[in-house]
Write a structure and sequence with these properties.
The structure holds 3 protein chains of 3 kinds.
Chain A (H helix, E strand, L loop, with lengths): L2 H10 L4 E5 L4 E5 L4 H10 L7 E9 L4 E8 L6 E8 L6 E3 L8 H12 L2 E3 L31
Parallel strand pairs in A: 2-5, 6-7
Antiparallel strand pairs in A: 1-2, 3-4, 4-5
Chain B lengths: L13 H14 L2 H38 L15 H11 L10 H19 L16 H9 L2 H11 L3 H32 L4 H7 L5 H4 L1 H18 L11 H4 L9 H25 L13 H8 L3 H22 L5 H29 L4
Helix pairs in contact in B: 1-2, 2-3, 2-12, 2-14, 3-12, 4-5, 4-6, 4-12, 6-7, 7-10, 7-15, 10-12, 10-15, 12-14
Chain C lengths: L1 H6 L8 E5 L11 E7 L2 E8 L7 H5 L4 H8 L7 H16 L5 H29 L4 H21 L8 E2 L2 E2 L7 H24 L2 H7 L7 H6 L4 H5 L7 H4 L20 H23 L20 E9 L2 E9 L7 E5 L1 H6 L2 H5 L4 H10 L4 H5 L1
Antiparallel strand pairs in C: 1-2, 2-3, 4-5, 6-7, 7-8
Helix pairs in contact in C: 3-4, 4-5, 5-6, 5-12, 5-15, 6-7, 7-12
Classes of the chains: A alpha/beta, B mainly alpha, C alpha+beta.
Amino acid sequence: MNKTELAEYLKTLGFECEIREGRQFTEAAISPSGLHDLALKLKEDERLCFDFLVCITGMDYMTDFGAIYHLRSTKYSHEIVIKVRTSDRQNPEFDSVTDIWKSADFLEREVYDLLGIRFTNHPDLRRLFLNDSWGFPLRKDYVDDSEIATS
Amino acid sequence: MTSEPWWKIFYDFTPFTKSIDEGLRSSMSPFWAVTTEMVIVGILFLLFYAVVGLFLVYWERKVCAFIQNRLGPNRIGPYGIFQTVADLIKLLFKELIPIKNADSFLFNLAPYIVIIVNFMVLGAIPFGKGLHAIDFNIGIFYVIAVSSMSVIGVLLAGWSSNSKYSLIGAMRSGAMIVSYELSLGLALITMVILAGSMQLSVIVEAQRTGWFIFKGHIPAFIAFIIYIISGTAETNRGPFDLAEAESELTAGYHTEYSGMKFAFFYLAEFINMFIVASIASTIFLGGWMPLHIGSWEGFNKIMDIIPPFIWYLGKTFFIIYLIMLLKWTFPRLRIDQLLTLEWKYLLPINLVNVLIMAFLVLMGWHF
Amino acid sequence: MEEQVLNTAINEDEPYLINMGPQHPSTHGVLRLVVSLKGETVKNVVPHIGYIHRGIEKMCESLTYPQIIHLTDRMDYLSAHINNEAVCLNVEKALEIEIPERVKVIRTIMAELTRIQSHQLFWASYGMDLGGQTCYFYGLRDREKVLDIFEETTGGRMIVSYSCPGGLMYDIHPNFQKRVNDFIKYFRSILWEYDAILTGNVIFRERTIGIGKLSLEDAVSYGVTGPSGRASGFSCDIRKHDPYSAYDRVKFNEVLFTEGDTYHRYLARIEEMKESMNIIEQLIDNIPEGPYTVKMKPVLKLPEGEYFQKVETARGELDVFIVSDGNKYPFRMKFRSPNFVNLGVLNHISKEFKIADLVAIAGSLDFVIPDIDR
């Protein structure tokens, strides 16, 4: 399916998400509560079959936290982007998709490590690159005078 | 004795050693004479050990460089022959790092066990005519029994280092040596059947009319190949170097050793290889006996021009070269494959081989 | 003293934990694997990474796009050119710049040379992982020839930094075509040695066939791309599915196997070297004339939006994801590095194999640690 067909088809599935055609991909923005259901549907649906989670990008939008999921179907080679945002800056949490795509294990840990976004139901959510006492460096409000040289 | 020209000594050392013995015995009591002889032999072996060890290390580097499109050591001395001497000096000056929580007594003891075992085996090897420290009538039996003791040193080293890598390496080494000892022994027993004696001097003498590898045709050849395989395994060399598998266990049982103690293990590995090769050359290729073919008098005469100990060294180094080629060509085996090879292939083949050899000797079908 | 030794003894049911790395000969860098053993059998592998985490994604947020190119070299240093290319393609796509044909062709040739030298190093170090140290020198001998070509044209041997947004840093060296042709001829004539010393070796085949099997479903689910994924039948070659640069004008086969064991992961790389040589041969003699770069503005400001570019590095799919807020710095820069995702599968496929197999499996996934850590 191409971008337009994909967007049309997604609208018929009846998820509460905002679907738009981006420059490159069809993009679906969904609330954190609906993320896991949508992900499961995208994987299981016969005509979509998004079986390959390409990457998860953790985002800090200054006001919100978000995650961007790039999915691809190895069967139909179409691609989709799911975006999820939360305005809870103190305790950002999304549902884990490790039970759907196994590659999410490491990708979610990376997002947690660098942005401090927690993933519920993740089997082993530990820091990956940095030690436990380190802050979350990819946050926009991260300050580290000793490690980062500012001009 | 004096009527002989001086260079005759290279063909037969017996008169020379005998004259020393007689001279000593005439000037002191038999006890002191034997003691002095032992000290002389001990010093000679120490020298020999160091020279052969250093030379083998250098040679291995050259061989592997040759295989790997490299030049190898070429800076110190002509063709880099003094490279290993320089390395030795470096190792002598290196700090012996004490290991925390290691069992220091056993830790320090282990390299010496390996070295002592090496010396004990060297004593039984005939290097040339009359160059033989002790000529037991059970020479082969002694060699097999003593050489397998080196595993104690390896196990101790692995256990006392208090390192997990070392322990795994030691356990591998233990499993390996215990199993390959069997084929090693059986391969030698095959040849003992052919020779009819366990005494190494008798075995060499029996090859005056032809080396055993030719005399015992097919079974002897099979035994030779099995011996080389299990001998390589016995010395922990590639492709059987699981005990010190570099890419898995960093350095296996001697991971924690440093400086001279490490050098002892390193040297012992090379001397072990030398011992395995010299036993192979003694049993299969006639030891110091020149290449003789049955009753071809002229041919045998020409071959006799080359002194026996040159023959011996030539054969030994040829076999060492074979073992080195094996190491630098093959990837390493896995522990279960190693044991499968021994218990499922080498051992049954060996047992059948012993039977065939016994039958051959019984029927008198050998040459 | 004895007491301490006894106290550290291991109980029967306690896992025997071994720390492979961060300094270990077979982890090819500072990867640390905590391995639970029972005897020699691997029960669990937990990778600990981050020993050379440099925060490249964070650094990108305060660097301009032409500067970022030089950071990407340092991720997967064996696919340095392909990493450069990925960022360049993404920036060019965002700025809607039309790239001269000459640049596309040269980039493709350089990328394939990069792939060849990377696989040569894989072959070399894989032999060494399995204990055949001679392979290392054979592999490096041939790799040196590729690096010499790189050096002549780009000035760098490994870290080439040859692409830049809008084209190339400099034109190719006049000798380039001749040397590449010579290399292809030489390498074709010598490739049989690789098979003779490793592929056909009995011990090597015993060590690798049937070890570390990865099924197609798992390969997709774990996102294992590159030759490792294709050995399992996962058709994931970006060059084929979503051609960039000049891949749409060359004919080549996607190397696919179905077995998915260590041996076929190895074989996929050997076959890929041959395919890469095919690609280069089709392009090298007809590099179009023209400028080697287009004139760019001194300060590149990407329009607001999200830009995604995927390329095929020597180890799998590298994705560059730029979120721009219209500034000269990216708002967020994300690299989906193939090694990082491939590392996730290690525990799954090495369970219940021997510790020596773990080395073989980890070697066949061909990790480059700086790419994992970034």
